[in-house]
Amino acid sequence: MSDQRPTDELREEHAHVLKKLDALERIVTHPDKRPETTAELRTLATFFQTEFWVHFTKEEEALFPEMGKYTLVGKGPLGIMLREHVELRASNELWQAAVAGYLSNTDGSEFIAPMKGNATHFAWMLRDHINKEDNSLFVMAEQWLKPIEKQNVARLFIEIEAKESAAVKQT
After folding, report:
1. What is the pTM for the complete model shown?
2. Which of 19, 111, 115, 150 is the most exposed place for a label (fewest CB within 10 A)?
3. Which ranges of the chain have pLDDT less than 50?
4. In the CATH hierarchy, which top-level class contains the domain 6-170?
């Protein structure tokens, strides 16, 4: 096992996601540059449709249950994070639908406003969520979890990533 804390791994993933959000916001605010940004938009849509959700799985199936030994999972900070996960999934679905419409139509102009609006909402909500996790929730995890519990979380992260990688290979 690595000496890295599981929360450090999640923070690194957050930093990667924030860069993706910067790119997303840049693209959707310049729909006039469609020919230059189509490939990047497809890549971002794929990332936020697949790879990104492994992060939520790691939190929901590994970190949050361990933290749940010290606080209620459905209430307080963990409850808020779980509700926000649901809201972020719904927001992403709306954005994905708008992107699909935009990319599948030659003109795509009717999808520009919903794509931009949904992307902006998704990005704002996700940035706020990441801030709460990085600056509050993960601090609590670092204080509460014993070394053995952190090791368990790290082991589960590896299992989750392996399972997700195997699922991607099957598709």
Report:
1. 0.91
2. 19
3. 1-2
4. mainly alpha
